[in-house]
Design goal:
The protein has a single domain, classed as Double Stranded RNA Binding Domain, CATH 3.30.160. Helices cover 24% and strands 34% of the residues. Strands 1-2-3-4 form a 4-stranded antiparallel beta sheet, covered by helices on one side. The chain is α+β, with helices and mostly antiparallel strands.
Length: 82
């Protein structure tokens, strides 16, 4: 079954941080995917800078996964800006 992705976007230090929460398997846990792009780029566009929660981090709600995704996205931007 294909799960549609609903991306949320926030601007951070001149870049767009895109985050989507994804259901984790057959459990009630969530993961996230994050993409960093130039301002105004479509969230589904290819991005050289991406991240995910990986197998070790599962979140109990969709909103918790999204918030963790933004925190990861901000950290990626901070590293990029150094």
């Amino acid at each position: 079954m294909i799960v549609p992705q609903s991306w949320r976007t926030e601007e951070y230090k001149g870049l767009d941080v895109h985050v989507t929460a994804l259901p984790h398997g057959d459990t009630e846990k969530w993961d996230y995917t994050v993409r960093i792009s130039d301002p105004g780029a479509d969230s589904s566009s290819f991005s050289m800078l991406t991240g995910g929660s990986g197998d070790d981090d599962d979140y109990s709600t969709e909103e918790a996964a999204v918030q963790a995704g933004f925190m990861r996205g901000y950290a990626l931007v901070d590293k990029l800006m150094k």
